Structure formats: structure tokens, C-alpha cells
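Input record (one chain):
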Amino acid sequence: MDRPSSNRGIAGQLRSVLASLPPARGLLPLIVLLLVWQLLQPGPSPYFPGPLQWWTATVTMFGREHLIAAFGATTWTFLEGLLLAILAGTGLGLLVGISDRAARALQPLLEFMRAIPPPVTVPVASLLIGYSASMKLTVVVLSALWPILLNATSAVRQIDPLLLDVARSFRLTAWQRIRRIILPAIVPSLLLGIRIAIPLAIVVTLLVEMLTSLPGIGALMIRSQRNFQSSEVYALLVLVGLFGFVVNDLFAVIEGVIMRRWPPRS
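The corresponding structure, as predicted from the sequence alone:
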């Protein structure tokens, strides 16, 4: 009797996870556009190659093996930068949201740093750190940090003070208050900040690679553009779009699983 109920529970969780994914029919306009492009393309073009030429260029680049290494460098920088931004943004958001003294001390600096566009930080980071993977990672972290930090700070400040008063009356330690009250309360806002930070981290990773020619997909795109390999540029653009699409879908699944454990408060 336990096995059928367990199977029904797993099936229900699977349906819930699949429901978190965006509908695949959203890709239909893009597919139709590519088909029309290919049909209207009379032949090889130096500026507007057909999608079949993109596929040929992709196969050629995979044969050279450096595409895999570049894709791995971009992916690793994105994942590492996003993880560090989540940790730093959550920690600073908790600190600024809980402590009025920390908010008064850090708020001007945080507002100043948030107003600086990410491309502007590349020359400064290059001077201070040099053209290295550490510099690229630093710029990505500084760019993806702010949505997470601001959402975490705002969520902490919106917690009902009565909950914190009850925690003090039960003599909970600061860590217990954070773990049992504050963190569960800010999870929805934190997930929203991460969702905003994901495309930002992807864009900034590619931007830094384009500006500095550090290993990655962005550097390959610039190199192909300078060599007038337009089909390679379009192929790399499609790969970047697919990467962003897959990452967004994976995060939608993770977000759906987490929100079933920590549902938003009404």
C-alpha cells in the first residue's frame, strides 16, 4: 500500500517540476523566423548567412576543439561568479537589513558602487588585478551582486517585528533567529534577485571576454567578427542563447522545488 502512494507522490512532484518550466511553444516564433530566413536566403552571404551555414560553422568549430574549452571557461566563470554573488549578496543583505548601524555605514558606499556600470569597472579591475581569470570573475561578481543584495535587504526589512520580538522572548540566539525566521522569510525575494542576476552575469561574462580577449565565447565572437567569419558569429550567438535558455529553465525547476518547501507568506 505504501508503494503506490509513494509513486503517486513522485509523479505529482514530477508534474509540479515540469509545470515550473516555461512552455516550449514560446520557441515557435524563433523557429519559424529561422526557417523563413533559410528559405529566403539565395546563397552564401558574407553578412547574413543562412542558418544552415551556422550549423556548418558550429561543426567546424567543435572540430577545432577550442570551442569546448572556450565554452567551459565562460560557463565556469558564470557559475563561480553567480555563486559568489549569491553568498556575498545574501550576507551583506542580512547585515544591512538587520543592523541599522551597518546600514548607515555601508549604504552610501553600496549606492555608489551600484550606480557604476559594469563595463566601466573592466579597465579599473584590469589595472588592479591584471588580465586574468580573477579579474573577469571579480567584474562578474560585482555586477551580479546588486539584485541579490537589494532584494535580500528589502525582504529583511519587511519582516514583521512581532516575529523578532517573539524570538527574543524565547531567547533565541542571533544565528537561530537568522536560520529559523529571517532566512525562510526572505527566500522568495532572494530567488527573485537570483533570477535577475542570472542573465546579468551571462552578459557581463561575455562582455569582459570581448573587451579583454580572455578565453571564452566572447573572445571567440570578437575574433570571428574581426576575421569576417559571420557564420561563426551567428553560430556562437545561437549557442549563447541556448545556454541562457537552459540555465533559466534549470533555475525555474530549482525555484519551483524550493518554493514548495518555503511558500511565500500571504
